[in-house]
Acetolactate synthase 2 small subunit (Erwinia aeris), 85 residues
Amino acid sequence: MMQHQLSIEARLRPEILERILRVVRHRGFQVCAMNMSSGENSDSINIAMTVASQRPVDLLSTQLSKLMDVATVHIQHQTTQQIRA
């Protein structure tokens, strides 16, 4: 499996983290690491997430961008390191 790092900025809503994790799971990705912090204003959050899958990360990024409260999704870098299953 390939690892990918994503940076997500979203509006702070009680359900936003659940929605993001649901999309990650439904698209066939596994969360390896995640860090969430408050954004510059109190109405936003920044999520740094490392996910793993053999699927193209662009598919996940596109679906996350479609979520109502997600402002931006950036693919930080794609790790070519192979993970043994």
